[in-house]
Amino acid sequence: MKFRLNRFPSIIFNRTNMNKKSYLDRIEIEKTDITADLESLRFLQRQHLLTVPFENLDIHWERPIVLNGKRFYNKIIGDKRGGFCYELNGLFYELLGEIGFQSKIISARVANDKDGYGAEYDHLAIITQIGNDEYLVDIGFGSFTAEPLKFILDVEQQDDTGVFLIRKFDDEYFEIVKKDGDVWESEYIFTPLKRDLSEFAGMCQYHQTSPESHFTLGKVCSLMTLDGRKTLTDNKFIETKKGQKKEISVNSAEQFNQILANEFHIKPNFQ
User: Is 144 helix (H, G, I), strand (E, B) or coil?
Assistant: First the structure.
């Protein structure tokens, strides 16, 4: 049964009371005395991207995604799953706070193929302040940056995944663009205003239920690797290593589930 767009599941915005050590274990970090500095922020983001996949499987397994910190924690840490932006960045924001980083969640609007952008609260990202500088932190946007971007305008920033730049979009928004040859391609626009998780409820529901949402069109599970990325969709598995891409067709649900288990250590559990 599909969820109706006007049906909102219960939304609880309490914090997780997380076990920080369990979270760090999940992202394969042994040390627990992490300090709130730039080196640690870079390390935390990279480790998260290497260990926790971006995935929308619950949408297709008909399990409501609720904006609830405890549910984020139980799914990503307890069940060793992934999630999409509201879950991944929502939980990571809490870990950063536990460590001592000064952060806020922000709203972004993702570029689409119609030369436009999604609605407000289309995407959830994080801005973290270290000293006098701010950094855009995002572990919930699939193939994006491996490390935080410094919030500085009109300066090219080299990342393992490409060259990025933040610039003014208009009087209200900033834009993140990525270099593609000689062209700058828009990733998303954002405002640096502090938001509350509750404000994302409508778009979280939209992305789970609307036929206009790209998340309802098919399953995806994607993970950054040390030398590339691996991505599973309904009909293909793509693995990129050092710029070389290998693709195989996925022809059955059984094959999909086998790759999901072997490559991402996720097994469907419908109990």
Answer: coil
Task: Evaluate whether 219 touches 236 at the Cβ level (below 8 Å).
Answer: no
Q: Which residues contact 223 (CB under 8 A, 6 or more apart)?
A: 49, 50, 51, 52, 53, 54, 82, 229, 230, 231, 263, 264
Q: What is the pLDDT of residue 14?
A: 46
pLDDT digits (tens, 9 = 90+) for 131-157: 999 999 999 998 899 999 999 999 999
- List the domains of the chain with CATH numbers: 20-216 (3.30.2140.20)
pTM above 0.85, yes or no: yes
72-92 per-position pLDDT tens digit: 999 999 999 999 999 999 999
Q: Is 3 exposed, middle or buried (0-12, 13-18, 19+ CB in 10 A)?
A: middle
SS3 assignment, position 77: helix
Q: What 3-state DSSP class applies to 19?
A: coil
Torsion (CA) 95, 98, 104, 108 in degrees, nearest 10: 0
List phi, psi (to 5°) of 179: -80, 130
Q: How many helices (H) and strands (E) does the chain have?
A: 7, 13
